[in-house]
């Protein structure tokens, strides 16, 4: 049994071809922070005849099951990434839409300190930072993922 099959069964989802194909694509590093529409296009590119409505339905099921995380960046459309990654935050270029993942121990520590100060026990958190290229030239498309 493949890892994908095990992940689906563990989440209580039936193993189906659309779920397996979508999960396989989501496991590719270049497909993190991908929209349902872009995932659908990639499926078409590899010859998979899975409808857009099915892609949306599967991603919603994966989100409910904790397999993927849904993010709403400034673009206004939801993007998805696998939930199996360690906690990280996001820096989003408003010029090209590139999403840069980062971790920072100081930021993490301060978030916990602030929660304690206000008598809040953190159960979850996310941080999105937005900006444009500091030198006015967006060259994020040249960076490797």
TrEMBL record:
Keywords: Cytoplasm, DNA-binding, Iron, Metal-binding, Repressor, Transcription, Transcription regulation, Zinc. It is found in: Cytoplasm. Pfam families: FUR. Gene3D superfamilies: 3.30.1490.190, Winged helix-like DNA-binding domain superfamily/Winged helix DNA-binding domain. CDD domains: Fur_like. InterPro entries: FUR (IPR002481), Fur_C (IPR043135), WH-like_DNA-bd_sf (IPR036388), WH_DNA-bd_sf (IPR036390). Belongs to the Fur family. This is Ferric uptake regulation protein.
